[in-house]
Every structure is written in C-alpha cells, then in structure tokens.
Amino acid sequence: MASLLYKLGLFSARNAWAVIGSWIALLAVTSGLALTLGGTLTTNTSIVGVPSQIVIDQLQKTFPEAGRGSGQVVFYKQAGSFGEEDVRLITEALESVEALPGVATALNPFSVQQEIADGRQKIADGKLEVAQAEVDLADGQEQLATAKDQLADGEAKVASGLTALDEAQQDLEGKLAEVNAGLKQLQEAGAPAEIQSELLANKAQLEGGLSQIDQQREAVLISKSEIEAGKIKLEKSRKDILDGVEKLAIAKDEIASSEKLSAATSSYTTVSLDNTIALVIISFEQRGTEVSADTRASVVDFLESAKLNDIEVNFSQDLTQSFGEILGVGEIIGLVAAAIVLFVLLGTIIGMAIPIFSAITGVAISATLVLALASKIEMTSTTPILGVMLGLAVGIDYSLFIVNRHRRQVKAGGDLRESIGLANGTSGNAVLFAGLTVVIALVALNLTGIGFIGLMGTMGALAIVIAVAIALTVTPAALALIGHKILSSKERSALRERGVSQPDAEKTREVQSLKPVFATRFPWLTVFSIVAVLTITAIPLTQMRLGLPDGGSEPEDSTAFRAYSLTSEGFGPGFNGQITTVLTANQPVAKDETLAFQADAASMLMGLNNVEAAVPAAISEDKTTFIFQVVPAAGPSSVETEQLVYDIRKLETAFETELDAAVGVTGLTATNIDVSDKIASVLPLYLATVIVLSLFLLMLVFRSILVPVLAAAGFLLTVTATLGAVVAVYQWGWLAELFGITTPGPILSFLPIFLIGILFGLAMDYQLFLVSGMREAYTHGYSARDSIKLGIMSSRGVVVAAALIMVTVFGGFAFSHLATIRPIGFGLAFGVLVDAFLVRLLLVPAAMTLMNKSAWWLPKWLDRLLPEVDVEGARLQAAKSLT
Q1: Which region, left, alpha or beta, applies to residue 275 given φ > 0 means left and ψ of -120 to 50 means alpha?
Q2: What is the pTM of this model?
Q3: Handedness of CA 862, 866, 870, 871 (dihedral sign)
Q4: Can you say whether residue 499 is alpha, beta or left, with left for phi > 0 and alpha for psi between -120 and 50 degrees?
Q5: CB count in 10 Å sphere of residue 859
Q6: Is residue 270 pLDDT above 70, yes or no?
Q7: Contact 480/417 with Cβ under 8 angstroms?
Q8: Does residue 509 have a pLDDT over 50?
C-alpha cells in the first residue's frame, strides 16, 4: 500500500492541475445535483419498532389526518391587551395562512377560546335546564297521582251507581211483573175498570221509574266513558313522564360527562388570562417528516411580513428549525483559529492554505452529495452538519500530516518531487489507515439497528473517505505547485547554505541527547493523576439523561426560544410538549356513547400525576380511534414529563378493562423518549464492539498485547470523561453562560453513540501517529525507554497541532447557531483535548514506561497469524533511503 500511495503522490505531483481540476469538476457536478434534485431534510427522528412509531404507523393506515405535521405560532401583545382590531388582523392573517400551499388549518385562537367558553356556558345552561326539568317532572308526577286517584274515585262511583241502578231496575221489573200479573187476573175475572185503574196507575208509575233508571244508566255510562278517556289520557301522561325521566337521566349523564371533560380541559386555553398571548396551531397537509422546509418557511415568512400593528409574532422550533446555513459565526471562528495553528506550525501562509483548501473542497463535495442523496433517502437535518464537522477537522489534519512530513524531508535536503511521493507513501499510508479506523467506527453505527443513526454514520464515513482521498491526491498536487515555497524564506536560505544534510545522524544525536519528558520521569504520578482527574470528570455521567433539544435550548435571541418562553409564561411549560395519546376501541363506539367514552378516558388521564389537561382532539369516522392531547405540568424535557409518558402506557390494562380500548402514546415528546431509550439500550453493545475492534486493529499495527489494551483503556477514560463533561455543562448547567446554554436539559439522544464512534476513530489516529514511531524505533534496536522518547519527539509537534486544529474546529461548532450541533461540537472538542493531551501524550507514555519491554510482548504463534501492516511505510523509506 505504501508503494501504491508513493506512486499516487508522484502522479498527483506530475499532473497537479489535472488532479485539482478533477476534484473541482466533481464539486461542480455534486453541487448541480444538490441544486436540481433538491433533497429534503427532516428535523424529526424516528425508530422503527418503538412504541411511539408503531402508533404513528397505525394512525397512518386508519386515521391519516391525525398524523399531519404541525407547529405553533405565538402572538404577543407587547403593550396592553388584544383589542377588537388586533383580533381582526390576526384572524385575517390566519385565514390567509390557511390558503397557503401545503397548509391544512390555522386554528384561530380567539375562535377556539370562544368555543371553549361557549361549551362551558352550555354546560351551565344545561345544568339549569336539567334542574328545571326535574322540578317539572316532579310536579307532573304529583298531578298524575292526583288525577289517578280522582279517576279511581270516579270509577268506583260509576260502578256503585250501575250496581244500584241494576238493583233498582230488578226491583221495579219484579213489581211491574206482579202488577201485570194482577191486571191479567182482573181482566180475566172481568173486574170493573175502576178496580184495574189502580193497578194501571201503579204500572205507569213503575214503567216511569224504569225509564228514569235507563236515563240514569245512560248518564252513568257517559261518566264511565269519560273516565275511560281520562284513563287513556292518564296513561299517555304517565308515558310522557317516563320518557321525560329517561331523557332527564340521559341529559344528566351528558351533563356529568360534559363536566368531566370540562374539568379535564379547565386548564386548557389558547389565549392567556391577561389577554396578551395567543397560541395558534398550524397543521399541514402532509406528515411531519414529509412537510418541506419551503412549506414551513412560507408560513413564517407570511406572518413575519403581515401588518399586525405592534403584535409580536414568534414561531416554535417545529417551524423554524432549519439547517440551511451549514456554517455559522462560531464555525467560521473555529476555522480561522485552525488556520492560525497551521500558520504557526508550518510558518507560511501558502503552506497553511493547502490543508484548509483540501478540507473545504472535501467538505463541499460530501455536503452537496449528501443533499443530493436526500432526494432519494430520508435524512435528518443533522446528517450534512456532521459530515461538515468531521470533514473539516479530519481533512485539515490528514492533509497536515502529509504536508508536515514533506516539509521535514525538504528541510532536511530531500529532493522535492521524491519527497512528495515519499510523504504520501509514509504519512499518507498512516492517514489511510487512520481514516479507515474512523470509517469503520462510523459505519459500525449501523450495528445499532437504528436507521437514522446508521445513515448518519454512513454519510459521515463518506465525508471521511472523501477527506482521505483529497488528502492523498490534492495535497501532493498542491505541494508540487508551490515547490520550495512550502518552506519560509528563512528556511529556504538556510537550506541553500547548508546543502544536503545527514538526517539519520542528526536524529541519532538528538535521541541520545533527548531528556525524559514528565510522563517518563514520573510515570506513577502521571498515571495516577490522569486516571484520577478523568475518573472525577466522568462522575456526572452516572446521572446522564437522554433526550432531544426543545425550544428552551435555542439561543435567547431566537424566535423559537421566544415562542417557548412566551408559551410557558402564558399557558404553562407543558403546552410546549403536549403528549399525543391515542385510544383504539376494539368495537366502534355508539354515537350516543361517544361523549361518555371521551369523558371517562379524560378522567383516567387526569388521574395521573403531573397532568395539567387532557383535551379530546379528534375522532375517526368509524368511531374506533380517539385522540387526546395531554398537557403535562412540566416542560417537554423534564423528568416529570418523561415519567408521565410511561404512566400513560401503564394505563393499558385499565383502558382495556373499563373502556375496551387499547392506549398508545406518540407525538414529539413520546418519540424523543423512545428514541433516547432505544439508543441507551444499544450503547453498551456498540461500545463493546468498538473496544473489541480497537484491540484487534492496534494488535495488528503494534504487534503487542498490552499496547492495544492500554489504548482501549485510555479510550474508555476519554469517552467517560467526555460524557461526564457534557452532562455537567449541558444537563447540569455548569458554565452555561459561556456556552450559550439557555435551559439545561437532557443530553442529545444520539450524542453518546456518535461521540463513542468518532472519538474512537480520532483516538486511534493519535495512538497510531504517536506509538507507531515508538514501535518503529523499538524494532530498529532502540531501548524501550528510548523508543518512547523518540516516538514523542518525532510526533509530538504534529499531533499537538493536529489536536489543536480539531479542538478549534469542533470548538467552533460548540458555539454553533444550531442548538442540536452545539453539544456534539463541545463533546468532540473536549474529547480530542482530553485524549490527545492527557491520554496519548501523558498517560500512554507513562504507562508504557512502567511496562518497559513487556509493552511490546506478543506470543510468537499470534505474531505468525497476524498479517504485517507497514503503517508508517518503513519499508518504503528503506527502499528510497530518504527521511
């Protein structure tokens, strides 16, 4: 490989303009692809298989409208409170927003607030109506009882009258029969008429009585008919009263359910109590991950330009989070600082420009290529930023290693063209192997099984591959173009006066006169001190919480932070992180049971700790899916809100038992928690994989057992101390003002796993450049202690410079305009600082001094099995007889 890289360096030197032009042409192609394909990046993170994502996937099938993307807009009346004119202007603006492409709804906060007030008034009116209905029903029941008694009395009298009439009729009919019989006898006996007249008078009297009885019976029957009609009317009244009782019961149940819902939503408002802050929910037509940056920006741009008098408009993180500006002020300052370090080390502006040019070219190519690929692959917005961060730091360092080696060789009197090839074959070979370790560490992120993490690792690895390729081609080409100008004028003059030197002899004399450094003079003190300091620094790691930054983490002058603060002030911190709770009924809920179902569900949710409100948000057409927005009492990043998500999920059995429904939790807050939990669960596996990988690679390079173990132990100290420092600063709030931390909170969920992967690669780089020199000296016959001194002497300067460059570049990202990037930049800067200056330059030499010759021990059988890896190109150097 060293020979191939030597030839590649010479080829690049001979065809310098063609090589540089080819990379520039490639940049033009990737830039064109990025502009034409227009890939969309998302700020959302999701993991297949976690509970919140399962709920989202189910909603997408059964209730697509519920999965729409959304964001909040906060209107703030700075002087006084909202008046009629303010309400009119805001209403008109929101109506125009709804007409924008891609926007589904822009809920008018004043209309929503009025609906809430109308609903509560309706409940109050309903309670009064129910109370009056109860009184009316009581009166009706009393009247019904009285009428029933009266009808019963009348019916009894009718029956008694009919009985009396029947008896009287029978008596008269009997007497009439006797009179008729007597008349018949008298007539048969031929009795005189005077005698018959008395009986005839009696007969007429009896017949008159019977006639009166018939008349009386008819009157009684009419009364009986009236009583029967009264009974029918009474029965109807009784049914009406029963219906009234039933309706009253239903109304009372509805009122009770409404009161439950009212209690559950009593703290939910869209306009603050002092009428100075209004909260608007903007819903888009597409899913959150599919809403384009242009659609979100159109809402922001329109409302920012709307004429709203003195009303201040702020936007939530969902609407404003954008990664369009890859480099901010902090990143540029870091790049300038890196340039200063390069100038101090190399002594010339043109020499400084080579690594900067190489790194920027590589970063531009990788960033535009990622943006072009984003049109086909869904990527988080952090992906290109990570590539830029790594590409800048690694690209500058890798080019620096080759430039520095070339300078040393030319300064020592070596042939210019031959020196370029040799530098590419020696330091370039080390660069290739170092880059390979970083690439492997990043690609290994796919082992976590987390899609967006693996993709970020792969795209980061792509940036490293491009940085290595450019370092191995553009750097030799640029060195050929500038010739001896890589040296300062003073160095060129000294070279002309001195002529060709004898570097081997000079190096030997230098080693013999080299004094021990602190680490080799006091190895026990060094090891104990470094381990103690890094162990103490790692203590905060025991309390690390993972999450994703919310609006409270944004810079204080940002609209996202302002919106977050105003929302917390006007409505409570929980309104910034509402928890979407989904109930899925096993059977469709009847229309007349819907209110009771919602009320019971809301009451169960309100029974949990730290719940401010449980608001019904939507019902599917088939009445099987019910969505609630649960407003926590604390902010979205708090421990209490995290626990609330778990508590809602624990209600699964209760919901199944009482409502025959399954419960699920989704939304940004729940998703962030699930992502963090998933990442935390795979961290040990990934860390173990990286450690095993480092042991194998270093054993292959250094032909030793203890050196790889020492390197891995040092890496563990670096990682734990770095994560401890990140927790102390970003979670505990230490030095918060210095790093622009507005609200300390959970650590970025995927930060630990990225720090492990990236720091592993960088730590192995420093281990490689420092210890390979020791290994080379030891194999050339120097003692174990002299080998350590020689390795430090030959590599310390360039490693310190490389580490300072990485610290400044990563440190610039620690002051990024993007809250998501800041902790990554800080963690990488701190990790490089700790690993290079404490672990590699102090701890490793001190420990190797204590190990003495045993540091290089390797069983012979294992030595035979391991392939030879000439990382520093020692064989090439021997063949060319040039140092």
Answers
A1: left
A2: 0.77
A3: negative
A4: left
A5: 9
A6: yes
A7: yes
A8: no
The pLDDT assigned to 505 comes to: 44
pLDDT of residue 394: 84
Give the residue among 615, 647, 641, 637 at the shortest CA–CA distance from 628: 615
Of residues 134, 772, 102, the one with CA closest to residue 431: 772
Q: What's the pLDDT tens digit per position in 399-413?
A: 888 888 888 888 777
Place of tokens 């990988």: 693
| Strand stretches in 224-342, DSSP E | 277-287, 311-315
Tokens of 822: 């800041």
Please report the sign of the dihedral spanned by the C-alpha atoms of residue 239, residue 241, residue 243, residue 246.
negative
The residues with which 619 forms a beta bridge, in sequence order, are 626
pLDDT of the residue at 329: 66
- Identify the sign of the CA torsion 791, 792, 793, 795: positive
Distances (CA, A) of 806 to 179, 229, 401, 782, 823: 143, 103, 13, 32, 15
Contact 329, 817 (CB under 8 A): yes
Segment 467-494 shows an average pLDDT of 84
CB 18 within 8 A of CB 648: no
Collect all residues with Cβ–Cβ distance below 8 Å to 756 and sequence separation of at least 6. 683, 686, 687, 690, 719
Let me know: does 203 contact 180? Beta carbons within 8 Å: yes
Residue 616 main-chain phi, psi, to 5 deg: -60, 130
Q: What is the mean pLDDT of the chain?
A: 83
**What gap in Å lies between CA 3 and CA 756, rounded to an integer?**
33
Q: What phi and psi, each to the nearest 5 degrees, are found at residue 271? A: -130, 130
Q: How far apart are CA 13 and CA 420, in angstroms?
A: 7
Mean pLDDT of 63-82: 84
- Residue of 576, 573, 547 whose CA lies nearest to 819: 547
Q: Are strands 661-666 and 747-748 parallel, antiparallel or unpaired?
A: unpaired
Q: Are 702 and 708 in contact (CB under 8 A)?
A: yes
Residue 210: Cβ-neighbour burial (10 angstroms; 0-12, 13-18, 19+): middle
Place of tokens 């800048």: 392
Q: Are 248 and 133 in contact (CB under 8 A)?
A: yes
Q: How many Cα atoms are found within 13 Å in the side-chain-facing hemisphere of 42?
A: 17
Residue 633 has pLDDT above 60, yes or no: yes
Write down the residue that tokens 């610290």 correspond to: 807
List Cβ<8 Å contacts ≥24 apart for 604-607.
604/651, 604/654, 604/655, 604/658, 605/264, 605/581, 605/630, 605/648, 605/651, 606/263, 606/264
Kind plus residue range of the DSSP H or E element containing 74:
strand 68-77
563 in Cβ contact with 74 (< 8 Å):
yes
Q: Which of 842, 752, 850 has its CA nearest to residue 532?
A: 842
Give the integer Cα–Cα distance in Å for 185 and 164.
Answer: 32
For residues 334-348, b (16+ Cβ closer than 10 Å) or e, as one string? bbebbbebbeebbbb
CB-based contacts of 422, cutoff 8 Å, min separation 6: 6, 9, 405, 409, 414, 873, 876, 877, 880, 882
Element housing 742 (H / E) = none
Do residues 254 and 126 make contact, with C-beta atoms less than 8 angstroms apart?
A: yes
Helix, strand or coil, per DSSP, at residue 604 = helix
Please name the residues in contact with 455: beta carbons below 8 A apart, sequence gap of 6 or more.
377, 379, 380, 383
Q: Let me know: does 643 contact 412? Beta carbons within 8 Å.
A: no
Both tokens of residue 830? 């701190």
CA 85 to chain CA centroid, Å, is 38
Q: Is the pLDDT of residue 323 over 60?
A: no
For 189-193, what is the mean pLDDT? 75
Cβ-proximal residues to 249 (8 Å cutoff; 6+ apart), any chain: none
Q: Has residue 235 got a pLDDT over 60?
A: yes
